[in-house]
Design goal:
The N terminus is likely disordered. The two termini are 36 Å apart. It contains 15 helices and 15 strands. The protein has 443 residues and is α/β, with parallel strands linked by helices. Helix 4 links the parallel strand 2 and strand 3. Helices cover 37% and strands 18% of the residues. The protein has a nine-stranded mixed sheet with strand order 14-13-12-11-7-10-9-8-15. Strands 3-2-1-4-5-6 form a six-stranded parallel sheet, with helices on both faces.
Length: 443
C-alpha cells in the first residue's frame, strides 16, 4: 500500500483524478505493450522500439524524459515511478502537452508506481532503458537494481551522497561493463561540443602543464516548499530534499559537482591526493533550510603540485559567477567560454549544442550499436571529489582521497517509509543539527 493510501487524506481523490487524466493514453499504451517483448537483448536494431521508464518525476526527471524521447525517435515512455503521486501526475501532464513527443508517451495508470518501492515495479514492468532522476541519495540503490536486472541506464548527477554510495556505484558500473550495458551520466558538460573541443585541446597540451584550476559556482537562492499540516517529517524532508545532506549531499555535491567534474576531467580523470577547506551556514540559517551549508571553499591538492581552488555559494543579492578557469605553463583556458589564451590561442566557432539532448543521443546510439557506453568510474570519482569537499568543510580537517573513499559514514535512514524517522532529526526548537568544523568528527 502506498504512502498516500495510508496517510494522505486526499490520496483517493488524487488517484481518481490521475486515472481520468491518464485515460486518453491508456488504451494505446496497453496495446503497444502487448506487442513488445519483455526479454530484450543488450542492444537493439535501428528500427526497434526501446521502452523507457522514468524513476524520479520532478522537474529534472520530466526534462530527462523529454530529452530521451527527442533524442531517439524509436523510443516510447511507458512507465513512471516517484515517491509522490502528484509528481507523476504533473510529469505526465507536462509530457502529454509536448506535441513533439506526445504520441510516444504510452504511460498508463497500471504503469505508474508510487512510493519508495515503486522503482522495483518499474524495473520489472518490461522497460529496456531506465532514467534515474530522484534525489541523489537514491542513485546507488536504483542503479544497482537496474544493472542487476539488465537495464541500460541514464544516471542524473551526482551519483551518491556518501562514500558507501560511491563504492556501490563503482561496483554497479563494473557489473554493467561485464553485462555490456550502457550507463550514461547526467554530467551534461561532458556532452557539450564546445566544452569537448576545449577540453580536448587542454588535454593535448594547449596550455601546457596545469598548475592551478579555479572552479566557481556562486549563485542565488533556490526553491523551498513550506511545511504542510498533513506531512510527516519524512515527507517534509523528501519534498525539500535539496536542503538535507542525506538526500542532496549539500549544494557543493548536488550543484557544484558539475564544476568539480570538469576539474577531474582536466586532470585526466585522476582524483586529488587530499583536500582541505572551510564552509558554513551564514545567511540561509532558518529551519526550513534543513542542515546544509550556504557556502564552501575547498582546496584540492594533487601529487604533482597542481591545485584546484573550489568555491561555491548560494546567497541572495551577491555577486554571482559560474566559471572554470585553468592555468597552465603555456596559457589559460576558460572552459565555459570555450577559449584558450597563451602560446596557442583558440576559440570555439562550431555550432551550438543541446547538451541535455546530446547525452541521451549518446546513450541510445550506444545501445543500437551494441557498443556499451560506460561513464561509471569517472562519474563516481567526480561525485566523490564533491563529497570529499563536504567532508573537509564539515569537519575542518585535511583528508586524503583514500580516507574519504573508505569512509564508513552512511547517510541512509534505518528504513524507507513516510512514517519512518529520517536520519536528520529535528531538534526541540524545530531546527536541525548542523555540522560544526572542529567538532564534527570524520567517520
Amino acid at each position: 500500500m502506498s504512502y498516500h493510501q495510508r496517510f494522505s487524506p486526499h490520496s483517493r481523490a488524487c488517484r481518481r483524478d490521475f486515472l481520468r487524466r491518464s485515460a486518453a493514453v491508456g488504451a494505446a499504451g496497453a496495446a503497444a505493450a502487448v506487442g513488445l517483448s519483455i526479454a530484450r537483448s543488450a542492444h537493439a536494431a535501428g528500427d526497434e522500439v526501446l521502452r523507457v521508464g522514468l524513476i524520479g518525476c520532478g522537474g529534472r526527471g520530466t526534462g530527462a524524459a523529454r530529452d530521451a524521447l527527442v533524442a531517439d525517435k524509436n523510443t516510447q515512455l511507458v512507465a513512471l515511478s516517484d515517491a509522490f503521486v502528484d509528481r507523476m501526475q504533473n510529469c505526465l501532464k507536462s509530457l502529454q502537452k509536448n506535441e513533439a513527443i506526445a504520441d510516444r508517451v504510452k504511460v498508463t495508470p497500471e504503469t505508474c508506481f508510487a512510493g519508495f518501492e515503486g522503482y522495483k515495479q518499474l524495473i520489472a514492468s518490461g522497460v529496456d532503458v531506465v532514467l534515474l532522476a530522484t534525489p541523489p541519495h537514491f542513485r546507488p540503490l536504483h542503479l544497482k537494481a537496474c544493472v542487476e536486472a539488465g537495464k541500460h541506464v541514464f544516471c542524473e548527477k551526482p551519483m551518491a551522497v556518501d562514500a558507501p554510495g560511491v563504492r556501490s556505484i563503482l561496483e554497479s558500473a563494473e557489473l554493467a561493463k561485464q553485462k555490456g550495458l550502457s550507463v550514461v551520466s547526467g554530467f551534461c558538460w561532458r556532452y557539450h561540443t564546445g566544452v569537448q573541443e576545449t577540453m580536448k585541446r587542454v588535454l593535448d597540451g594547449a596550455i601546457g602543464d596545469i598548475l592551478a584550476i579555479q572552479e566557481t559556482y556562486n549563485t542565488g537562492t533556490l526553491w523551498q516548499r513550506p511545511r504542510q499540516p498533513d506531512w510527516t517529517e519524512m515527507e517534509f524532508q523528501m519534498r525539500n530534499w535539496y536542503y538535507f545532506t542525506w538526500l542532496s549531499g549539500d549544494h557543493n555535491v548536488e550543484q557544484h559537482v558539475h564544476s568539480l567534474d570538469k576539474a577531474l576531467w582536466a586532470m585526466g580523470n585522476r582524483p586529488p591526493a587530499r583536500a582541505w577547506g572551510l564552509g558554513g551556514r551564514q545567511v540561509r540559517t532558518a529551519p526550513q533550510f534543513g542542515n546544509i551549508y550556504d557556502h564552501h571553499a575547498v582546496v584540492y591538492e594533487y601529487g604533482n603540485g597542481a591545485r584546484v581552488y573550489s568555491f561555491c555559494r548560494q546567497m541572495a543579492n551577491c555577486y554571482n559567477e559560474v566559471s572554470d578557469i585553468f592555468h597552465g605553463t603555456k596559457g589559460r583556458a576558460d572552459v565555459l567560454k570555450h577559449s584558450i589564451e597563451g602560446q596557442t590561442s583558440w576559440k570555439y566557432s562550431g555550432p551550438p549544442c543541446d547538451m541535455y539532448r546530446a547525452e541521451h543521443e549518446a546513450l541510445f546510439r550506444s545501445i543500437r550499436a551494441g557498443a556499451a557506453h560506460n561513464d561509471g568510474v569517472w562519474m563516481a570519482y567526480s561525485t566523490m571529489m564533491a563529497i570529499l569537499g563536504r567532508m573537509v568543510t564539515y569537519t575542518g580537517q585535511m583528508l586524503s582521497w583514500e580516507q574519504a573513499l573508505n569512509s564508513k559514514e552512511t547517510l541512509s535512514p534505518e528504513r524507507y517509509a513516510f512514517d519512518a524517522q529520517p536520519p536528520i532529526v529535528p531538534q526541540a526548537d524545530g531546527g536541525y543539527p548542523i555540522a560544526m568544523p572542529g567538532l564534527t568528527k570524520f567517520v
